[in-house]
Design brief:
The complex is a heterodimer of chains A (about 400) and B (about 230).
Chain A (H helix, E strand, L loop, with lengths): L1 H8 L4 H40 L3 E5 L2 H4 L9 H9 L4 E15 L4 E9 L1 H4 L9 E4 L9 E5 H7 L6 E7 L5 E12 L4 H6 E5 H8 L8 E6 L5 H11 L3 E5 H4 L1 H39 L1 H9 L4 H37 L1 E2 L4 H6 L5 E2 L5 H27 L3 H6 L3
Parallel strand pairs in A: 3-8, 5-7
Antiparallel strand pairs in A: 1-9, 1-10, 2-3, 2-6, 2-9, 4-7, 5-8, 6-7, 11-12
Chain B lengths: L1 E12 L6 E12 L3 E5 L6 H8 L7 E6 L2 E2 L5 H11 E4 L11 H11 L4 H14 L15 H14 L4 E5 L7 H18 L2 E6 L2 H6 L2 E6 L2 E7 L2
Helix pairs in contact in B: 3-4, 3-5, 4-5, 5-6
The chains are: A alpha+beta (about 400), B alpha/beta (about 230).
């Protein structure tokens, strides 16, 4: 019956209870939706890093990532690629020839990283082909096609089918050049990437560099499951100890820091919200105790022990918190479900967001685990907020409490 | 059979600048089935005496023995438990739990005692019938008159099957008709069920019904009159 009494007690002063429930609901809504927004934002960036820029794991010659020298290549990428592809958790593998070069148009020039790929095979690894906004992905141009980012196209003032010249250092150190024609212009959420990366066919770049037919600078590996990274990484490291094999968080440590700190910061944010709400709850419950001194005195007089009185006050507070928390979570989940499809359009900040590698349309997402954690935090807030008022209640002297005129 | 014995009871309030002796060496005993009224002017110490008997306030000196148990030395948690099983309370302001119905108010005490639902339900209905309110079983206190609420309070006091019932000014807020009804019910329960009632009161109608009248003044018993 204490449960029933506690539940009914919170509705004795409807207005006051509704005010605090609304405050809790709004606070929890803000917390949950912000978590969903931030997770959506970060996960989109991670998705972009994995499926557009890096993939899950990359293999290089041991010193390649320090020097980016063309002669630091893997000599037999084809057989290595085939072996890696046989690993059960590996979904796709692609080898790349990479060279830093100068690229010039009739108007101007820029330094870029030229990536030689097998266009069809690369489709299994990265989704650049889906990001083409003008022209086509290595189609429409007979020889030496190049796919460049929108930002680079703007910088070079070139369009589809424009001719551009690549100046590059051969394996023997000779500087050479090659003419390419723009087949497609792509646009990702990362303008820095769009400005820095240009894609050509691997054979075209090999010819230009005069590098062995079977050589490659990078092997990109896409896994079937994000959670298998460490397992596959360990296996590959044991198979190819002479190479540098890194997962995407090691290649981009700032992304790792961002994802890890984001979780922590989000919970800090929610805890701050709940802390503020907790003080509101304490205030409300102190008023409740003050109004019910005589009744509490009567309950203790007729034999309700301190544990039960304490429990009753805690239950009332928890009921208030759970009601508000449930409403807040519900509203947040409904809004997350709605905006997860439509997205939150932040295009007015697109330039700034894209320069940092973030998409301007955010699709909020939240996992069950995070909802459960927030729900537990709400209940804990209720319990902690109840302690002080409940202690006040149990320290009442029944005789004095009964004497008070309410 | 002696249900309650007070031995040289003293209560001194030290919490204000002035030391107040509210009860000053009172010794009394009550037999099973008594219908006793403690009377006296305001500030005479009758409510304090009732609070001491009920274990709601601590005594400064003396002993309170209920059915052979000295409650003066019990810890506050044991005292709460002792009150739950041995003493029924009726208060001037009824003090029912407003969110519970009449029946639930009565059942609440039995639930605190750990009684089973069927037993609680049956006894609550019996007690409501005994106080003439079986038709108001599912009414909340706010929907009942003062007299009806006080009758529910009496039923609640009886719910735990106490050794005796302490009633502090039970008729102070009631009109004449409600007072008469309430007193008749309590008198009937006293005679038929042999339940001991101890009142503190100013009300002459209660005094007229009482078979023992104890007059308290300045913390002393000045008269103790038993009527046949």
């Amino acid at each position: 019956m204490i449960w029933s009494v506690s539940w009914r007690n919170i509705w004795r002063n409807r207005t006051r209870s509704l005010v605090i429930i609304t405050a809790i609901a709004l606070g929890v809504f803000a917390g949950v939706y912000t978590i969903a927004f931030m997770f959506g934002w970060v996960n989109q960036r991670i998705d972009s890093v994995i499926h557009t820029e890096i993939s899950h794991i990359q293999v290089h010659q041991s010193q390649y990532l320090e020097t980016y020298e063309v002669h630091d290549y893997i000599s037999d990428v084809e057989s290595m690629q085939e072996k890696i592809l046989k690993e059960p958790d590996v979904k796709a593998v692609s080898s790349r020839i990479i060279a830093t070069c100068m690229i010039t148009s009739a108007e101007t020039g820029a330094g870029v990283q030229l990536v030689g790929i097998d266009p069809e095979n690369e489709k299994q690894i990265t989704n650049i082909y889906t990001k083409v906004i003008d022209g086509a992905y290595f189609e429409g141009v007979k020889s030496n096609p190049i796919v460049i980012g929108e930002k680079l196209a703007q910088k070079l003032k070139v369009k589809v089918r424009s001719k551009i010249v690549v100046t590059i250092t051969e394996m023997d150190g000779t500087i050479t050049g090659g003419a390419f024609r723009v087949a497609g212009i792509y646009k990702t959420a990362n303008t820095a990437y769009d400005e820095m990366k240009a894609f050509v066919k691997a054979d075209d770049l090999r010819n230009l560099l005069k590098i062995d037919e079977n050589a490659g600078h990078e092997i990109a590996i896409l896994l079937k499951d994000n959670n298998m990274e460490d397992q596959v990484l360990t296996k590959l490291k044991s198979l190819y100890p002479e190479f540098q094999i890194l997962k995407w968080t090691e290649i981009l440590p700032d992304m790792k820091m961002m994802t890890e700190s984001m979780n922590f910061m989000m919970y800090i944010f929610v805890v701050i919200i709940l802390l503020a709400l907790g003080f509101g709850i304490v205030n409300t419950m102190l008023m409740v105790i003050l109004e019910r001194v005589k009744e509490l005195g009567m309950l203790m007089a007729v034999g309700m022990n301190k544990v039960r009185v304490f429990s009753m006050i805690v239950l009332e507070t928890v009921f208030l918190s759970i009601t508000g928390g449930f409403l807040g979570i519900l509203i947040a989940l409904v809004l997350v479900a709605l905006t997860a499809h439509t997205g939150l359009d932040l295009t007015f900040w697109a330039e700034g967001l894209n320069s940092l590698g973030f998409d301007a349309v955010i699709y909020p997402e939240i996992g069950l685990k995070d909802v459960i954690v927030v729900a537990i935090l709400v209940v804990l807030t209720g319990i902690i907020s109840a302690i002080y008022p409940a202690r006040k209640a149990i320290h009442l002297n029944p005789a004095e409490a009964l004497r008070i005129d309410m | 059979m002696k249900v309650l014995e007070l031995k040289n009871l003293v209560k001194i309030y030290n919490d204000s600048a002035v030391k107040v002796t509210a009860v000053d060496g009172i010794s009394l005993s009550f037999e099973q089935g008594e219908f006793a009224a403690i009377v006296g002017p305001s500030g005479s110490g009758k409510t304090t005496l009732l609070n001491l008997i009920g274990g709601l306030d601590s005594i400064t000196e003396g002993e309170i023995i209920i059915n052979g148990t000295n409650i003066s030395n019990l810890s506050s948690s044991k005292l709460i438990d002792y009150r739950l099983h041995n003493i029924g309370f009726v208060f001037q302001a009824y003090n029912l739990i407003p969110v519970l119905t009449a029946k639930e108010n009565i059942e609440f005490i039995m639930e605190l005692q750990g009684k089973k639902r069927t037993e609680r339900n049956q006894r609550a209905m019996e007690l409501l019938k005994a106080v003439g309110l079986e038709d108001r079983a599912y009414s909340r206190p706010s929907k009942m008159s003062g007299g009806q609420q006080q009758r529910v309070a009496v039923a609640r006091a009886l719910a735990s099957k106490p050794k005796f019932i302490l009633a502090d000014e039970p008729t102070a807020n009631l009109d004449s008709k409600s007072t008469e009804t309430l007193l008749n019910i309590m008198e009937r329960l006293n005679i038929e069920e042999n339940i001991t009632f101890i009142f503190s009161t100013h009300d002459q109608r209660v005094v007229n019904k009482a078979r023992r009248v104890i007059t308290v003044e300045d913390g002393h018993v000045v008269s103790d009159e038993k009527r046949v």
